[in-house]
Design brief:
single chain, 316 residues, Rossmann fold, 12 helices, binds 2-keto-D-gluconic acid, NAD(P)-bd_dom_sf, D-isomer_DH_NAD-bd, D-glycerate dehydrogenase, oxidoreductase
């Protein structure tokens, strides 16, 4: 088994009895292409993640590979059709990260609406020398309308949180989610109609050919001027230039972003300069408990597949 990032030895150790485990050991830098090619060429299994592109040319050389265990619920970093052609199993980590990612998404929405990061920076910089009635005044979240684009597991978990804050919830999805409509009192809306009605538009859709750049100039122009856009899914679902222009032209009020078109971004990224934007370094599922559960699930899937069984959380 080759692990493409340094992971905590305590979680890996119990599995060392079962597999010969090799790992990329440089904590501060991702695996380079050359090493990735060299290691996947001979491995029976790889435990990999979004920062690694598992493409056709890599898979064509992978002589023994039986499973790619992706440390994420999304798998847009893997060429699924190439994996299928070579009979390689792909697994992901759904469910174990649902509640954690919904927590972060709601926290990002709250932080953006209530200017929490900006206010913390303000006080740290020593700028709080007076109380003023509208100092760091944000916008209400309770009783507002939330529009969720992508009503999968995380979307549903976010809807539950929003209902607890007395929000009205609209959602848009490829298919209706009747159970959520019934149990949570959420309402289906066409994409355009959701954009026009929501005070907070949250993207939780996976990245696919259909969702790529679904938030474009036209989409942002449909949103209310007072509305906020939150993205905790994939950066490429958004045309970032269109988002930037919508923000500077005040077509929308602000944005909270945990993901970007090209990650990681550096401090010169134009969106970082906007005071009405809260940016996070893709930490949706980043809690110690959840990261540990994700790693364990990957290792369980690998153990199953290498002993001839089906992965627990199978993509293909
Ligand atoms: C991952 C994510 O932690 O699960 C996903 O799809 O985006 C995150 O939970 C991150 O992508 C690391 O692979």
């Amino acid at each position: 088994l080759y692990v493409t990032r340094k992971l905590p030895e305590e979680i890996i150790r119990p599995f060392r009895r079962q597999f010969d485990i090799q790992m990329w050991l440089y904590e501060e830098k991702p695996i380079n292409r050359e090493a990735l090619e060299r290691e996947t060429k001979h491995a029976d299994a790889i435990l990999t993640m979004l920062s690694d592109q598992i493409d056709r040319s890599l898979l064509e050389q992978a002589e023994n590979l039986k499973i790619i265990a992706n440390l994420a619920v999304g798998y847009d970093n893997i060429d699924l059709s190439a994996a299928k052609d070579r009979g390689i199993t792909v697994s992901n980590t759904p469910d174990v990260l649902t509640e954690t990612t919904a927590d972060l998404t709601f926290a990002l929405l709250m932080a953006t609406a209530r200017r929490i990061v900006e206010a913390a920076r303000f006080i740290e910089q020593g700028s709080w020398n007076n109380w003023a009635p509208f100092l760091m005044a944000g916008k209400d979240v309770h009783h507002k309308t939330l529009g969720i684009v992508g009503m999968g597991r995380i979307g549903e978990a976010l809807a539950r949180r929003a209902r607890g804050f007395s929000m009205d919830v609209l959602y848009h999805n490829r298919s209706r989610h009747l159970q959520a409509e019934e149990s949570l009192g959420v309402h289906y809306a066409e994409f355009e109609s959701l954009l026009e009605q929501a005070d907070y538009v949250v993207c939780l859709a996976p990245l696919t050919e259909e969702t790529k750049h679904m938030f474009d100039k036209e989409a942002f122009s449909r949103m209310k001027k007072s509305a906020f856009f939150i993205n905790a899914s994939r950066g490429k679902n958004v045309d970032e230039k269109a988002l930037y222009h919508a923000l500077i032209n005040e077509e929308i009020a602000g944005a909270g972003l945990d993901v970007f078109e090209d990650e990681p971004i550096d401090s010169s990224h134009p969106l970082l300069a906007l005071q009405q934007v809260t940016c996070l370094p893709h930490i949706g599922s980043a809690t110690i408990e959840t990261r540990n559960r994700m790693i364990e699930l990957c290792l369980e899937n690998i153990a199953l597949v290498l002993s001839g069984k089906k992965a627990k959380t199978l993509v293909i």
